[in-house]
Amino acid sequence: MEQNLPGVFTARKKDGTLYYRASITHKKKHISLGSYKTPFMAYAAYLEGISLLADNTLALEDFSKHRVLSFEKWVCLVNFRDNHIYFATPIYVRKNYFEYLLSPEYILKFDIDDLFFYSSHKIMRRGRHFFVADYGMQTNIMNRYGIKNYAVKGRDYRFVNGDDLDFRYENIEIYNHYHGVIRKETKKGTRYVAKIHINGNYTIGSYETDIEAAIAYNKAIDLLKKAGINKNFSPNYLEKISPSVYADIYEKLHISPKITAYLRE
Q: How deeply is 212 buried, as exposed, middle or buried, from its count of CB atoms within 10 A (0-12, 13-18, 19+)?
């Protein structure tokens, strides 16, 4: 029966269950439209795909739960029709950026420079966190923009326009680049406070620059390890300064007496 339905093909699961696949060829591009339980559903998807590619009045916003095609496939086809390039991920290219549409409610924005990466990496969502599978591991996409896993929005970084789904580089402002460092605004200006967690949070000191605070954090780790406290501390890596400059700052930095007092306990 399905042989009489254009764009419909039979397939079987490992357990032998029969299902139906729909596909379409447009501008010499063969596109899979998904799998369906009946040949009539697969054919409906085929017809919907043809209609979407031919009708410029149908937009991303015209998707609804009553459509046969999935939302992801709807996005892929609309982008192919409008921008003449097909992506297997739900990307729609705008003038100077692109959108990655996980759902009608979750529309992420990225710079064009990231197009190659996200066209080959599927974004997954867990609550308000977004991940990609990279080298066999799930990686939080925030890391790609310098936002550490432990970072707190408003303290360590912010989205300039207030939209935390807008990952364009100009929209992400990093306050704290280093582990254990917190930026604080005072009446006298910006200060950088280094803190470390031992059995509770301890303040290492307050410093003029984030680099000094990051090195102070490393110095506190060294002192603790020398005293036999081998917790899983994460030292900061500072690539912008030479070893000699690092050593000079390291030597001069003051560490809070509370740290040394803890070591004597």
A: buried
Instruction: Locate 147 and state its tokens.
Output: 């936002």
Position of tokens 């009446």? 187
Q: How many domains does the chain have?
A: 3
DSSP state of 153: B
Does residue 64 sit in the same domain as residue 131?
no
- The answer to whether position 82 is within a domain reads no
In a domain, 254, yes or no: yes
What's the pLDDT tens digit per position in 226-242? 888 878 888 998 888 99
Per-residue pLDDT reduced to its tens digit, 178-204: 888 888 888 888 899 999 988 788 899
pLDDT of residue 2: 47
CA distance 187 to 78: 53
The two tokens of residue 174 are 């990093």
| DSSP classification of residue 166 | B
Q: The domain containing residue 253 runs over which residues? A: 181-264
Residue in this structure with the two tokens 């081998």, named with its chain if needed? 230
Cβ count within 10 A of residue 265 = 5
Residues contacting residue 104 through CB under 8 Å, at least 6 positions apart: 61, 63, 71
- Give the closest residue to 218 by CA, choosing from 205, 236, 232, 202: 236
* Angle 126-234-128 from CA coordinates, rounded to 5°: 15
Residues 103 and 169 in one domain: yes
Question: What are the strands of the beta sheet with 129-134, ordered from one edge?
Answer: 123-126, 129-134, 137-140
Size of the chain in residues = 265
